[in-house]
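Before we proceed, please read the two lines closing this message. Report back on whether the structure tokens fit the sequence:
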Amino acid sequence: MQQLVSEFLNSLNNKKYSPNSIQSHRLDLRKFLSWLKVNEDNYDSGELLKKIRKLNLEDLEDYLNFLRQYYKPRTLARHTSSLKLFLDHLELNGLIKKSPAHQLRFPEVLPEAPEILSPQEVVALLESPLPHHYLGMRDRAMLELLYSSGLKVNELLGLDIEDLFLDLEFLKVRSKRERMVPITRKAILVLKKYLKEARVNRLLNPNDPCLFPGRNGTRMSRVGFWSMIKKHAQRSGISSRINPRILRHSFAVHLLQNGIDLSDIKELFGYVSLDATLQYAHINRPDFIKVYHELHPRGRKHAIK
């Protein structure tokens, strides 16, 4: 790998970028170096810097126009981000005087409507696990909680017993932006049953705080969860594509269809910016918690007996 690119990627790793993001930036920069006619593996850093110092805004726009022949706006926006980050890195480290990408504009990306399940499909999925078996009680609790609170899979699997505040109808999500998220009454009932009848006896270590152990008695893995949700989708007769993200999207869309506001979805999901909810903008309040319980399909008002 070219040394300047390697140093840049190391800086992203130090900033806690995810491995997937770092890999995407690496591949994007490989395309950029190819366009510059630079051999990524054995090209002198000094020669590369000479080429970059000659670049101006018009050159970079030419490069993006070249990419536009092959990529959709969303992918083009990622390439633009990679380029900006790399050139900013060189400028901050005094390797170039000024990045020519400062005035580079991102392509307009129109958010695509997310894939979702119908409310009927969600109910069928949630009611698929067997109610009198340990795995059934665990799976039902996980699915109800996922749909109740719009959690990401890693957030769900990372939950510990002390993260639950069932009497307050909340749970704590420990992620980049720690937040408190409401839980529906139905999910609380299912969780209480699971905690009372199933969880403790299935832990390899009785003192393990993990909320959802897998078959081996330790914290459930992503692969295990993926296998579980796929099994219940098949059992409930869902023919459309299914994954945890689709259930998360369904949570958001069903709330929006019932009248909740995008800003409330932002808070529930822990987003920094409202822009992150634009994928739901094709669907169309301040009392956040009250509205959540009134409008969630499995909230207090709609609780299934």
Notes: The chain has 13 helices and three strands.
